[in-house]
Write a structure and sequence with these properties.
18 helices; alpha+beta; 5-stranded mixed β-sheet; 2 domains; two-stranded antiparallel sheet; Alpha-Beta Plaits
């Protein structure tokens, strides 16, 4: 049997990555478990146990974390946290096994979903999140619910109910934040379709949310937990899924504390597990509505972005469509002319393209156009417009560029194409050339895109009449 060994630097890098993942998971579970243990009411299981939701979120977000060493690190972190706080080994193993069963159940179910669903970017994503969270909570509760009878003299049903509700609540308020986290990059509170750039307007939905949360305490009553719902919906329509889930987490955590201390909806008897579970579950389920709205809104925005891109770009080459090029070009040329700034235009035509189509077929022609667009984009600057304006004819608008510089760019495009071989099949490659006409406004106040296109088109035909594979300036 032949073994394959990695080069030493690569093997070292892989080892460091696995070691880092193991350390991150172990420390995260240890810290979250110790925090959860501190929330244990006297005589019962922890009221808030974030460790399982955090572990599940880490495993789902990063596939590299879901390896045997990281799972073992999580298992031992649970053990260390419980044993360090005075628990017996047998009961610690039981509770830890229940935690692991719940997390593994959730992880296996999340693996059935696509990336968009795992990141809560589709309309049904939140429904899947709820179903998986409920299944994971039930698996953990069935495994560990009996510990309540051994530890606290409570019956199995009481332990099952409390464990299930606690796990479900933790998952619904913590998992969305982890799953929707965009990464350690700068993210915006609102998108461009939100409330604008004014900071007060951007923060207004969040401010109203916090005011309504305060009102729920001041006014009180059985319906107080629903007071923040309209503000949450507003946040969901204004902010990203991650921001909405973060605000929801903060709100739910605060309301859970307020409910347990009697600030919200009146004091709850310490031993009234049914009432406590009902209030906790009701608060957590409030999160489903805003999260669903935010995920649906995110899916709608993504669909609009794709539709806009499709409407403005050529499907084959990815360059601007003729209509988009003309619309944007008219604006740019008019603006530059008003400022007395020159603008140049390149009209580019693939030489003998009809012969390529006739000899090699339309599939080969499509490959020629696609590869030409890719090669030309290497010479096009970020602020230039590059569009397909005809079958094999392309245009490049160069804002703030005079005739001499535009001609140099045209020569660069021509040279790149001339020196490239384009694969038109798995076994055949051919070379092509282009002819380019160049025209510039030279800062004329009455310049327009139509006149610029006419001048560059005339220069293009002179290049073709002189033998092709040439650049001609108007």
């Amino acid at each position: 049997m032949q073994t394959v060994s990695l080069p030493l630097p690569q093997a070292s890098s892989v080892f460091r990555a696995r070691l880092t993942a193991t350390a991150v998971v172990g420390l995260a579970v240890l810290a979250a478990s110790l925090f959860g243990i501190l929330t244990r009411p006297v005589g019962f299981l922890a009221a808030f146990w974030p460790a399982n939701a955090i572990l599940l979120g880490l495993m789902v977000r990063n596939k590299d974390y879901a390896s045997l060493p990281t799972w073992l690190a999580a298992f031992f972190a649970y053990l260390v946290a419980d044993l360090a706080t005075g628990s017996e080994l047998a009961i610690t193993l039981w509770l830890t096994s229940a935690n692991m069963v719940g997390v593994i159940t959730g992880y296996l179910l999340f693996r059935l979903l696509g990336d968009d669903d795992r990141a809560l970017r589709r309309p049904l994503s939140v429904l899947y999140l709820f179903a998986i969270s409920a299944a994971a909570a039930l698996a953990a509760a069935l495994t560990g619910g009996g510990a309540a009878e051994v530890l606290f003299g409570r019956d199995f049903i009481s332990g099952l109910e409390f464990w299930f509700v606690t796990e479900l609540v933790n998952s619904l308020v913590i998992l969305p934040v982890i799953l929707a986290f965009p990464g350690f990059v700068r993210f915006r509170l609102t998108d461009r379709r939100g409330l604008g750039r004014d900071e007060v307007a951007r923060l207004l939905p969040a401010a109203v949310l916090f005011c309504s949360a305060a009102a729920s305490v001041v006014i009180g009553g059985p319906g107080a937990i629903a007071f923040p719902v309209p503000a949450l919906i507003w946040c969901a329509l204004s902010y990203t899924v991650f921001t909405t889930s973060t605000l929801t987490l903060v709100l739910c955590a605060w309301m859970l504390v307020a409910a347990s201390t009697g600030l919200l909806a009146g004091p709850i008897p310490p031993d009234a597990l049914g009432s406590t579970s009902s209030v906790r579950l009701g608060i957590a389920l409030i999160a489903l509505g805003p999260l669903s709205v935010a995920s649906i809104n995110a899916a709608r925005e993504e669909l609009l972005r794709k539709l806009t891109h499709s409407a403005n770009h050529d499907m084959l080459t990815g360059t601007l469509s003729r209509r988009a090029f003309m619309d944007q070009g008219h604006v740019i040329v008019g603006k530059q002319a008003g400022q007395g700034v020159p603008t140049s235009l390149l009209m580019v035509d693939v030489d003998y393209f009809k012969s390529v189509n006739d000899h090699y077929g339309h599939a080969a022609g499509d490959r020629i156009l696609t590869e030409f667009a890719r090669l030309s984009s290497l010479a096009v600057r970020k602020n230039d417009l590059f569009g397909r304006v005809g079958g094999e004819e392309f245009a490049v608008l160069l804002p703030g560029t005079g005739l001499e510089e535009a001609t140099a760019i045209a020569e660069r495009i021509r040279g790149i194409v001339e020196n490239s071989e384009i694969a038109i099949s798995d076994v055949k490659s051919i070379g092509i050339s282009v002819s380019i006409g160049v025209a510039a406004t030279d800062g004329m106040a009455d310049a327009c895109l139509d006149g610029l296109m006419a001048a560059s088109d005339a220069a293009l035909y002179r290049a073709k009449s002189k033998g092709r594979n040439l650049v001609q300036a108007a």
